[in-house]
Amino acid sequence: MTRIIAGTLGGRTLRTPPGSGTRPTSDRVREALFSALDARGAVAGSRVLDLYAGSGALGLEAASRGAQSVLLVESDRRAAEVIAGNVRDLGLGQRVRVSRSSVDAALSRAPGEFEQVDLVFIDPPYDVDEDALGAALARLASGWLGPEALVVVERSKRSPEPTWPDGLERDGKPRTYGETTLWLARPAP
């Protein structure tokens, strides 16, 4: 069972897409991640982009903790429908939007359509290779990110460090929780 950890919607249950293609970020990892983000003041009032959204758990957690706006991008039709249902059930329609599109297509749009973002979650399926992840990061770094933005990449602990494009640099050491490693990055000065 996936649930919102904290904030105004803490404890509320989220539906997850059927099938094995989606693996929601575990409650343990989300709790650790959001504790670190809250300590940095990175969530409240932020504009959030959740790529490869799956169930929408990361973006919806951010909304519960006070994010100003959230855009959830998911290409799978069933998953996007589940996310839209979660948004509706949680009463977040004013601040949270769902885009049923590939990450590549979403990032190909002009960043101005959604404003620059302050916080990005990237939790791609295991079959998204390092080149595709690098391409998504490069697109983000070319105009999508606000000057103080934070990018969170979630991968298997067996995956290599993402290839950070020009304009984006790793922020601190990776954090590993069981089988999951979180990499943080910021716009390069």
Automatic annotation (TrEMBL):
Transmembrane segments: none annotated. It comes from the Bacteria. It holds the Pfam family Cons_hypoth95. Keywords: Methyltransferase, Transferase. Residues 1-26, 156-175 are annotated as: Disordered. This is 16S rRNA (Guanine(966)-N(2))-methyltransferase RsmD. The lineage of its organism: Bacteria, Bacillati, Actinomycetota, Actinomycetes, Micrococcales. The gene is rsmD.
